[in-house]
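Retro notes, structure queue

What went well: the backlog is down to a handful. What didn't: a couple of records were mislabeled last round, so from now on we paste the full input next to the output in the thread. Example, using Adenosine 5'-monophosphoramidase HNT1 from Chaetomium globosum:
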Amino acid sequence: MASKMASCIFCKIVKGEIPSFKLVETDKTFAFLDINPLSRGHALIIPKFHGAKLTDIPDEHLSDILPIAKKLVAATGATEYNILQNNGRGAHQEVDHVHFHVIPKPNPAEGLGISWPQQKTNMDKLKALFEEIKSKV
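Corresponding output:
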């Protein structure tokens, strides 16, 4: 893990080795403006604990994330916005350190553009899936 942390751009930002536009910092969390924003106010919130995917991060290192996201949304004045967190290349994660995007959506041209490819479902299969997942939660 140490070698991954040493080369991780977000770990370097937290340590101050790479400059950032820091918005909020707590003992567990660091938030800063994205340098490749989708819209004005696009920010990233990262746990200081290094982990590639959400399941790699201990719960206590996630406790600040949503309260900080809420503060950042209020600070931008956004009334429409996305909170986004991707896990793995297939899910569009580009930096292997958990991060949450706060992306204001001021108009159709700026912010996150997504499609929502809903699938038809069989209620019996959905019930079986429900029971499978519920038994593991």
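Agreed that this is the format going forward. Reviewer comment attached to the example: The chain has a mean pLDDT of 95.
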